[in-house]
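Note to self: keep these together.
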Amino acid sequence: MANEIAHEYERLGPEFDRAEASVGPMRAIMEHIYKRALAMPIPPDTHPARFA
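Structure:
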């Protein structure tokens, strides 16, 4: 089974590369927004979020 996975990963490599390249511009913008958000203080009256 590991050989099959390795073979498919090798076969799909070019598609993975294209997908990563296509998301590059969006990722750069999202990273910029994320870093800007990290630099902003959280107001003391903000309630923590809960994920269920």
